[in-house]
Specification:
By secondary structure, the protein is of the alpha/beta class. The protein has two domains: 3-90, ACT domain (Alpha-Beta Plaits, 2-Layer Sandwich); 136-287, Rossmann fold (3-Layer(aba) Sandwich). It has nine helices and 15 strands. α4 runs parallel beside α5.
Length: 289
């Protein structure tokens, strides 16, 4: 089926009104996007915060009369922001995404393999992954940085927490590398569901918790691939969740944020020099004894 889309830039306080109006005009889907690379840090459960500048994309059947849509919109909103109309190529988008997600190797031991692919190296540690609705395929530099650390680390018989687990990729890697206990923590219940499904697919056990339900049992290794803002606010919690001499691995940090994040962890952890991949970095540290 062919589609067209209306694309306009608006503000967070007007986005919902515009979205409702486009829906009344027959839009099949509405998408909010970030046109200015403005991160949103760990929204409260049940909330959908928007960026100060928000791009709205309204999808319509290609047979839609665009003049009729605009005339109807004028009766429902005070002002229609500048917009453009684009044709959307007719594709099977799920198939397109699946065709472009291929097995990826990290270090010497680890492979991330889409669940619909045959692993290239059956003797490697293969993580069979179906990301579902949760973030995490291994293609992003921050995930790759964490997987490379895991590939080189001795995880056997250790207790590992993956804080901000997304699709469970780091938690499952730790379990397959021999961790005796692995916990995944995320603010998004859908991420916890995806982690459980992927863990079952890989034949490993990962316990999952919302942050408020996470047991306060100090771990040997704490992984957190989230964002710089939340990482800084979580220093006291991560210090509590880490045994003396525990490893901490932090990512989701831009290289310009490395010094600030590292300094915030120095009172509780001995931090090492950042490891860079593209514009992102990984910080490793050890909990003070």
């Amino acid at each position: 089926m062919a589609w067209i889309q209306f694309i306009c830039n608006t503000t967070s306080d007007k986005a919902d009104t515009l979205s409702d109006a486009f829906s009344e005009c027959g839009a099949a889907a509405i998408t909010f996007e970030d046109p200015a690379d403005q991160p949103i840090y760990e929204p409260d459960l049940g909330t959908t915060p928007l960026w100060t500048e928000t791009r709205l994309v309204a999808l319509f059947d290609a047979e839609t009369d665009t003049d009729t849509v605009i005339n109807l919109m004028k009766t429902m909103v005070d002002e229609i922001p500048a917009y453009r109309i684009e044709a959307v190529e007719d594709k099977d988008w799920e198939r397109e995404w699946m065709d472009n997600f291929h097995p990826i190797q990290f270090g010497e031991r680890l492979w991330i393999c889409p669940s619909w692919h045959t692993p290239p190296d059956k003797n490697a540690i293969n993580i069979m992954l179906d990301p579902g609705l949760a973030f995490g395929t291994g293609t992003h530099p921050t995930t790759a940085l964490c997987l490379n650390w895991l590939d080189q680390a001795d995880i056997k018989d250790k207790y590992v927490i993956d804080y901000g687990c997304g699709s469970g990729i780091l938690a499952i890697a730790a379990a397959l590398l021999g961790a005796k206990k692995v916990i995944g923590v995320d603010t998004d219940p859908q991420a916890l569901e995806a982690t459980l499904a992927n863990a079952e697919r890989n034949g490993v056990e990962v316990e999952v918790f919302l942050p408020d339900d996470c047991p306060i049992e100090p771990c040997d290794v704490l992984l957190a691939n989230i964002l710089a803002g939340p990482l800084q606010s979580l220093v006291p919690r991560f210090a509590t969740l880490s045994k003396p001499n525990a490893d901490i691995v932090l990512s989701g940090i831009l290289h310009t944020q490395a010094e600030q994040v590292s300094n915030s962890y120095q009172p509780s952890f001995t931090m090492q020099a950042p490891v860079l991949k593209e514009d992102w970095i990984r910080l490793n540290g050890v909990r003070h004894a």
